Amino acid sequence: MTATTELKNIINEENVVYKKTSVLLDNEMHYCPGCTHGVIHKAIAEVIDDMDIQEKTIGVSPVGCSVLAYNYLDIDWQQAAHGRAPALATATSRLMPEKYVFTYQGDGDLASIGCAEIMHACNRGESIVVFFVNNAIYGMTGGQMAPTTLEGQVTATSPYGRDCQTTGFPMRISEMLAMLPGTRFVTRESAETPGAVRKLKKAIRKGFENTRENKGISFIEIVGTCSSGWKLSPVKSNEWMKENMFPYYPLGTLKDE
Amino acid sequence: MAKFIGAIVVDTEKCKGCGLCVVACPTKVIELARDVNGKGYHYAHMANAAACIGCSSCGLVCPDTVITVYRTKAS
Ligand SMILES: Cc1ncc(C[n+]2csc(CCOP(=O)(O)OP(=O)(O)O)c2C)c(N)n1
Ligand code: SF4
Ligand code: SF4
Ligand code: SF4
Ligand SMILES: [Mg+2]
């Protein structure tokens, strides 16, 4: 067999082992090349597909680069004011307990302007899932410092590197929330390798399943990259993340009750 | 153990040339093309098709989900 006929034999509908789930719409994502938001969207969409809950899932998108998440996942959505997604999700899940309700928030959205909002939603133990995308920067607005920005990290508003003496210290949000009795499942994941994506998908499934039991909130942090804000290529961004973010934001499950 | 052979198809017009699939591939199948697509990105393609084992690693990490993976038993 020649190489081309062999290829033609492989590329055949019945041999498909991986393709875009139909829960992802065909719209081209507006994200920069290599942006972790795309991988996380895909992981959530695949779990929704696997669990067959597309008609029962309601997402709340934030203010931040992922504000347009509703253009990419074919489920019902609401869009919240900056940092206020947990409030909308609280109302939605209380009014429609049969739905699977989640928020999708960046670190500027959740850890800065929405810090009080998430604290209280976690303290109340709402039956929702929170996806917290920590890329240590305000991506959408041009790469300003976030509460999660690492010490010494250069951003548009910390051009000489974050100085913790004047701006405080990078906040480990997951650790803080894990202390609250209202949180049931708190984990920190990533999405830069196939193994990490598979692990993330397991956590997403657990989060959605937890919402059936009214025993507290599931909080899933995903440490990700923002190659535009960090001014590195997508591949270099992943390397920088592993070297600098993972030691300060260690991956793994903090709480699973 | 049965040996598997695989292949990928990239939706080249939607690829953003980020290169994450290139580093995720365990058998070094993928490269970014010298040519660019309509958006100006060096799209991903199989430069070494014979090495593909259809493991789906590239598909899982692609942020734009533009890779379809095929796999079958080697004859
Ligand atoms: C009330 C209000 N304040 C400020 C802004 C400006 N703003 C838009 S996005 C954003 C931060 C986004 O950062 P993050 O939540 O980390 O999301 P990313 O883009 O990094 O994913 C800010 C401050 C706004 N839109 N509304
Ligand atoms: S600015 Fe950063 S977070 Fe926003 S789309 Fe680009 S890479 Fe992603
Ligand atoms: S399916 Fe696996 S072997 Fe084939 S190109 Fe993708 S990562 Fe490489
Ligand atoms: S990961 Fe996807 S978008 Fe990035 S280069 Fe590969 S095929 Fe293109
Ligand atoms: Mg951010």
The CATH class of the domain at 24-135 and 173-224 in chain A turns out to be Alpha Beta
Number of helical segments with 4 or more residues of chain B: 2
Strand line-up across the major sheet of chain B: 1-4
Bound molecules: thiamine diphosphate, iron/sulfur cluster, magnesium ion
Structural class of chain A: alpha/beta
H/E order of the elements of chain A? HEHEEHEHHEHHEHEHHE
Average pLDDT figure of chain B: 96
Write down the domain tally of chain B.
1
Distance between the termini of chain B: 13 Å
Q: Could you estimate the helical fraction of the residues of chain A in percent? A: 25-40%
**Record field, number of beta strands of chain B:** 4
Under CATH, the topology of chain B can be stated as Alpha-Beta Plaits
How big a fraction of the residues of chain A is strand?
Answer: 15-25%
- What is the correct CATH architecture of chain B? 2-Layer Sandwich
**Strand order of the main beta sheet of chain A, please?**
3-2-4-5-7-6-8
Radius of gyration of chain B: 12 Å
Silhouette of chain B = elongated
> Taking all residues together, what is the mean pLDDT of chain A?
97
Structural commentary:
The complex is a heterodimer of chains A (257) and B (75). Chain A contains ten helices and eight strands. Chain A is an alpha/beta fold. Chain A has a domain at 24-135 and 173-224: Thiamin diphosphate (ThDP)-binding fold, Pyr/PP domains (Rossmann fold, 3-Layer(aba) Sandwich), CATH 3.40.50. A seven-stranded mixed sheet of chain A has the order 3-2-4-5-7-6-8, sandwiched between helices. The radius of gyration of chain A is 19 Å and the shape is globular. The model of chain A has no long low-confidence stretch (mean pLDDT 97). With 75 residues, chain B is α+β, with helices and mostly antiparallel strands. Chain B has a single domain (4-73), classed as Alpha-Beta Plaits, CATH 3.30.70. In chain B, the strands form two sheets. Chain B has a two-stranded antiparallel ribbon with strand order 1-4. The longest helix of chain B is centred in the N-terminal third of the chain and has 5 residues, at 20-24. Chains A and B meet through helix 1, strand 1, helix 2, helix 8 and helix 10 of A and strand 1, helix 1, helix 2 and strand 4 of B. Strand 1 of chain A pairs antiparallel with strand 4 of chain B. Residues 6, 8, 24-25, 27, 29-30, 52-58, 69 of chain B line the site of one iron/sulfur cluster (SF4).
